[in-house]
Amino acid sequence: MKNTLFLLLLLFAVKSVLPMDLKLEVNLKGEWRFEIGDNPAYANPNYNDAEWEVINVPSQWENEGFPGYDGYAWYRFSFTTPPSLNGHNLYLNLGRIDDVDQTYLNGHFIGGEGEFPPDYRTAYNIKRIYPIPADKIIIGGRNLLAVRVYDSQIGGGIIEGNIGIYSRLDIIRMDIDLSGKWPFSPGDDVQWADADYDDSNWKQVNVPAYWRYIGYPELDGFAWYRTSVTIPKTLAAEKLILMLGKVNDIDQVYFNGTVIGRTGDFPGSSKGDFLISRRDEERAYFIPPYLIKAGKKNIIAVRVYDLGGPGGIYEGYIGLTTRNEYLKYSQRRK
């Protein structure tokens, strides 16, 4: 049954999770306080847990002296953050939790996956990465993390992962967010690059997402995406970058009918190396200012070739940002 649930959760996760470039700042692996049962008072940072058991995290609690136990339990852990983290975008990585969790930092709920009984729903195979609100963490001081867990069967608890506090390096401001529904068509026709082409009969699909999970499970080879964007005159005066996330495997991008970039080589190219996937490379393309129609509709068309397996514009930032913002983003990631 867990295998079936995993497949369902995977389909949801593929469509909804953005990639993140994270740097470990505070390692939270090690000995945590642990108590079976359920009491909302355990989330209180002032609660006295001195009599609780101590177990290793990450690990199944069955391997830490609680064999055969299914049901509720709580974890607590105290840690200090260095002053150098002031102003950083911080995330808590709790790895995988079997099955359901609610997570509290200094008494404040910051995240959870799955559903507790009576409407139980497992989330055992979803990696827990929760953003930490800046006003809920004490920088340069002591913090108390409390995690409520419910396990329905087999192994339970905070079972695996690189547990810790992380800073995010890949934040970039999108002046225009283009994620969402794009017209999409399998096949390949050079006319689809034209700004005046009528794509009103194309199917609308989510971007970013593998096209395997949005209605095209058997599609390999060529397909096209199109969308339109109106760029205000004030923004059009800036030098702009089109962010297209990651594409599996090869792409060519048109802005108002003109090629502005390509990553990889298509079948039949003179270079002959089209079998090389470029799926792990983030796409960013400079838009020549003379191509932009300020205050009017502009057309973006993306030609994609998939070598096999999941294909398409599958994750990452999708939208327009300024060159200055992109340079700051690039420097943070070095």
Question: Explain this structure to me?
Answer:
- This protein has about 325 residues and is mainly beta.
- It folds into two domains: about 1-170, Galactose-binding domain-like (Jelly Rolls, Sandwich), CATH 2.60.120; about 175-330, Galactose-binding domain-like (Jelly Rolls, Sandwich), CATH 2.60.120.260.
- About 10% of the residues lie in helices and about 45% in strands.
- It is built from three helices and 21 strands.
- The protein has helices at about 1-15, 235, 325-330, and strands at about 20-25, 30-35, 55, 70-80, 90-100, 100-105, 110-115, 125-130, 140-150, 155-160, 165-170, 175, 180-185, 205, 220-230, 240-250, 250-255, 260-265, 280-285, 295-305, 310-320.
- The strands form four sheets. A six-stranded antiparallel beta sheet has the order 3-2-4-9-6-7, with no helix packed on it. Strands 14-13-15-20-17-18 form a six-stranded antiparallel beta sheet, with no helix packed on it. Strands 1, 5, 8, 10 and 11 form a five-stranded antiparallel beta sheet that branches.
- A hairpin with a 2-residue loop joins strand 6 (about 100-105) and strand 7.
- It is elongated.
- It starts with a helix and ends with a helix.
